[in-house]
Amino acid sequence: MRVVEGNVETLAREIAQLKHDNTELLKHVEILREEVAWFKEKLFGRSSEKLSVGELEQIRLFDEAEAAVAQREAEELLQLVPAHVRRRPVRRPLPASLPREEVLIDIPEAEKHCGCGHELVRIGEESSEKLDVIPPQVRVIRTIRPKYACHHCEGSGDEERPAVRIAPAPAAIIEKGIATAGLLAYIATAKFCDALPLYRQEKQFLRYGVELSRQTMGDWMIATADACAPLMKLLEARVHSGPLLQLDETRLQVLGEAGRANTSLSFMWVARGGPPQAPVILYHYAASRGAEIAQQMLGTYKGYVQTDGYEVYDQVCDGAKGVVHVGCLAHYPERSVIPSR
183-206, pLDDT tens digit by residue? Predict the structure, then answer.
């Protein structure tokens, strides 16, 4: 009986030990499972610090002010640099050409008397300037042209002139249109200089209480371009007046172009030249990349012409009189130095 009792106690201890070991192993397995899941998330999952380019660009729309402040604080921390001391940035005075509006903030009249009974005397002042902006103001210009007529003879006494006389209407870029030259210039500047598409300008005008569709503004831009044709002729002459003319072209796609599929390739040609102190850049759209367009951009120019390695420029420049074809380091290493003529 004692042997049997001893065996039972041994088995009980072994069972208890096995249960304890099993519990510890289960805990270890759970820890390993969590570690594997964590490593998988790091390897295959997207962490909060790994954002796409689009998400980063979107975030910059909201944290631009914070980023600017952080950059300024970092620059202030780096004011002291070994071997020299960097001067702290000094706020530049506001341009004197800007219009100024003075705002007087004075103490109440009751406080301009001393306790001794005498009146306080102005001995100086403190002034500060802050920059303000007035949002675009949309207005309507109502042009009135009075009409005149003779009630006595109804025009029969002065047959060489019209019976009803009225001043001629002022010249306008868009006849019978509602857009002034100032409005057309504002839309064109916002679109081509500030990269503000017409659909965004449409929303801006809605905030001002004016409904201008992007289609209408698109028609206005075409009419404005036609009106600027004489100016373009002057700019073409100016771009050819300098000692160096740079030519290039780039591919683009135009949607909805008459007679062409949306997948057709078009080209934006660019010429840069004119006086070195005031260069001119002209853009020219063409559906072709042929030599005839390059010849049109070159015109009657005489001087140095710098291009890339596109063979069309060789065809146009090498046969032109008074033209020296030069290249950049990437395409024409042997022509990178302008030769003497």
Answer: 999 999 999 999 999 999 999 999
